[in-house]
Amino acid sequence: MFTSAASRLGAAAIATVAGLAVLAPAAQAAERAPADTAVKLTAAGYTKYLTAQGTPEAKQVLKRFLALGRGQQTVFLKDLQDRRIYQAFQGRAKGTLGKSVSGAASYNKEVRFVSKATSVVTKDKNRTATVRFTVTEQIFGIPVTSGTITVSYPTAGQGPKKLTASAKVTNLNAAVAVKGSGFSAKGNTAQNSWVAVPQVKSFGKPVQKKQQLSVDRAGFVGSLTTLR
Fold first, then answer.
1. Nearest partner of 46 among 62, 32, 60, judged by Cα
2. C-alpha distance across the termini of the chain, in Å
3. Of 103, 86, 85, 84, which Cα lies nearest the Cα of 95?
């Protein structure tokens, strides 16, 4: 989870990290799977991985994964370690303040990328707006990876004068480990980047993602894209 403190527009956000490591330049070698890593992800390995997480999200995914038939579990695991699917995992949302928007794109018959944005404006003197933008990869309707950016800012007067922003990546894909590579809140935009580092040889090379959310007095635009 990557979180910034409230920051003046145009000033660099102060980011802290909890639970995920930040990639420093000297750590680029960590973007490759360890030499002794498994060749591919198995049902037993994935079950062990989810059990070890111990989070409510992991417990729910484990329950739903075990409820799948053997054939579906095989497809599910194949999709988890398919680099082409992770590269295709992208999304976009655009809307006006006070309204929510959502949409989904299908990669194949079992994989979908769901984009959702919610926005509310309070009745305080600053007319504070809070926008939350999330993109989630689902396999058989089970969420395996999601990225979220949340921003809050005053809309009264001339518009945003300060931006409070945070970002979070929830990874329940045992084929990769998520490493943060940069978070910032500058101008009217919050941006978060991360690298999916292979944990099984079948995944291949790392994949880098960038998620951002731009806001103004009228609305918002959010996107998740693949950098490489």
1. 62
2. 22
3. 103
152: DSSP letter: E
Q: What is the pTM of this model?
A: 0.82
| Contacting residues for 150 by C-beta, under 8 A, at least 6 apart | 130, 131, 132, 133, 165, 166, 167
Question: Domain range spanning residue 9?
Answer: 2-226
Q: Which of 105, 1, 86 is nearest to 41 (CA)?
A: 86
Q: For the chain, give percent helix, strand, coil, nearest 5.
A: 20, 45, 30
- Separation between Cα atoms, residue 210 and residue 212, nearest integer Å: 7
| Count: domains in the chain | 1
pLDDT tens, position by position, 63-99 = 999 999 999 999 999 999 999 999 999 999 999 999 9
Residue 10 DSSP label: T
